Amino acid sequence: MKDISAETTDDCCAVPPVQGRGTKQSCPVCGAKGKNVDTQTVKAMLAVSLDSLTSRAYRFCPTQSCEVVYFGERGDVYTEDDLRERVHQKHPDAADVFVCYCFRHTPGSIQRELRLTGTSTVVEQINAGIRAGQCACEIRNPQGSCCLGNVIATVKRVQRGTLLFH
Predict the structure, then answer these.
(1) Chunked in runs of 10, what are the mean pLDDT values of the chain (166 residues)?
(2) Most buried of the four, 12, 86, 147, 148, by CB within 10 Å?
């Protein structure tokens, strides 16, 4: 964990600061608005001692070029080095980084299926897993929500040839 901000507050009723670089809602490094993520997701993803968690609320920084993955209301910040998994949003062009963490699909596996069969069944496979109650995106996906948007975008990029691996 990197200590980027020492700002703390014990006032749960305090008015949140105006959004912008370094606010509780924006990433303290890149200034992008963070997406709320459940603390359970952060706990599940961290590969460091959970006694480093000091915030009650965390946000996910989706910015590809930013090293921050999670940041908390009290200034705690976690980078990919602190996590159990690499993060698709930080490496959308990597063949081996999961785009679907529950069913272990990568851009590379999607491309292999397209090369071998001419089509991709990954979206249908994921939807079948969701219907079967096998999905746990809220815990297994670093962004803390469903991966289907990322998967569909990745399939389209591979189909268009804008995402190719050798």
Answers:
(1) 40 32 78 95 96 93 97 94 96 95 96 94 96 94 95 94 70
(2) 147
Q: Amino acid identity, residue 91?
A: H
Neighbours of 26 (CB within 10 A): 20
- pTM (global) more than 0.70: yes
At the topology level, CATH places domain 2-82 in: N-terminal domain of TfIIb (2.20.25)
Helix, strand or coil, per DSSP, at residue 40 = helix
Residue whose pair of structure tokens reads 């069913």 in the numeric block: 103
The pLDDT, as a whole number, for residue 23 is 53
Distance CA 4, CA 26 (A): 13
Rg (CA), the chain: 17
Chosen CATH of 93-160 out of 1.10.3470, 1.10.357, 1.20.1740, 1.10.10:
1.10.10
The three-point CA angle 57-80-152 to 5° equals 85
